[in-house]
User: Which sequence fits this backbone?
């Protein structure tokens, strides 16, 4: 069970939009807290691919009849206050500062998100540490364990493990 405050911040929902042979449309909604993505080309494309993944053995029935489900589509029903994306693999420079997910939404909802922070791993004195860079108004502040925080200009070369959008 996940605590309510976490849910309020990070939970988002996805519509499985099913259309049967008789053209009935039904929706099955599921929720997510964070996702793991392979990010190769662009983050928006990777999200689209993740949404469009083949469900293979998963089966849904039409809510109105017994006809076969003919088409299956997944869209974002509602975005969370904070979108957490764990990057399984990422090439650098694949995370945009701003992104528009409106084409992935179920219905026309504004879906412009801004990068709020990233977390990545770095070796310092042979030790692996987690470094975070967070947006503070127009500035980017870097936090390295055991060091003073500092403002950074360019961090597009790092390979993030976690991306936070709002
Ligand atoms: Zn039907």
Assistant:
């Amino acid at each position: 069970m996940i605590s309510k405050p976490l849910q309020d911040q990070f939970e988002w929902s996805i519509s499985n939009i099913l259309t049967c042979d008789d053209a009935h449309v039904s929706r099955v909604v599921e929720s997510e807290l964070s996702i793991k993505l392979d990010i190769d080309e662009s983050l928006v494309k990777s999200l689209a691919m993740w949404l469009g993944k083949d469900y293979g053995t998963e089966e849904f029935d039409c809510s109105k009849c017994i006809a076969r489900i003919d088409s299956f589509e997944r869209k974002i029903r509602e975005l969370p206050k904070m979108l957490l994306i764990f990057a399984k693999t990422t090439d650098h420079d694949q995370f945009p500062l701003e992104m528009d997910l409106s084409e992935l939404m179920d219905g026309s909802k504004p879906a412009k998100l801004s990068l709020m922070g990233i977390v990545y791993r770095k070796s310092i004195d042979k030790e692996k540490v987690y470094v975070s860079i967070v947006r503070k108004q127009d500035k980017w502040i870097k936090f390295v364990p055991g060091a003073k925080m500092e403002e950074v200009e360019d961090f597009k070369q790092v390979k993030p493990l976690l991306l936070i959008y709002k």
Summary: The chain has a mean pLDDT of 87.
